[in-house]
């Protein structure tokens, strides 16, 4: 607003108008500078954070490979094909895979051995119980078993049965050809291995042994 009596061409009026112009406000220029500076610092912080995160990731991967080389025995063995060079990541991974597969096979083998041992332990426990029952029965009735026959008598019974069967087998079987031998064997079984025939043979053998013993 022009003071009374002042001319529009008055230079002081022009200066006042210039300072009143918002486009030349020094506070606005400082605000734009601060915003630009803030944007740049934000980008720098994001870039720095991304770089640090990437570095942490790479460090973690490197520690993982170092741990694998320490844990896996085959990674510690010298590979003459590559000399003294450091193992590559691909070789470390392959050796780790091979070692894990080896451990799986060993685990399965050990589980099978443990299963077999458990079955053996179960069988031994059953045998132990049976022997304890036999010992107890013998103590409760010490006179039982005095008339028990020997293993030799048992073998003589078996031998007598086989001798009788072999006599009929030898008389009935032809060895002119394999085909004729097969036919004779089936024919001999049907004729001489009937339940009644076998019963008669066993009774005859037992009768002979009884006469020999008594």
UniProtKB/TrEMBL annotation:
One of its GO terms (cellular component) is cytoplasm. Transcription regulator. Forms a sequence-specific DNA-binding protein complex with MAD1, MAD4, MNT, WBSCR14 and MLXIP which recognizes the core sequence 5'-CACGTG-3'. The TCFL4-MAD1, TCFL4-MAD4, TCFL4-WBSCR14 complexes are transcriptional repressors. Plays a role in transcriptional activation of glycolytic target genes. Involved in glucose-responsive gene regulation. It is found in: Cytoplasm; Nucleus. SUPFAM superfamilies: HLH, helix-loop-helix DNA-binding domain. The keyword Coiled coil applies. Signal peptide: none annotated. It holds the Pfam family HLH. Residues 45-103 form the BHLH domain. Efficient DNA binding requires dimerization with another bHLH protein. Binds DNA as a heterodimer with MAD1, MAD4, MNT, WBSCR14 and MLXIP. Can also bind DNA as a homodimer. Residues 24-33 have a biased composition (Acidic residues). Residues 19-58 are annotated as: Disordered. InterPro entries: bHLH_dom, HLH_DNA-bd_sf, Max-like/E-box_TFs. GO terms for molecular function: DNA-binding transcription factor activity, RNA polymerase II-specific; protein dimerization activity; RNA polymerase II cis-regulatory region sequence-specific DNA binding; RNA polymerase II-specific DNA-binding transcription factor binding. This is Max-like protein X. One of its GO terms (biological process) is positive regulation of transcription by RNA polymerase II. Keywords: Activator, Coiled coil, Cytoplasm, DNA-binding, Nucleus, Phosphoprotein, Repressor, Transcription, Transcription regulation. Residues 100-127 form a coiled coil.
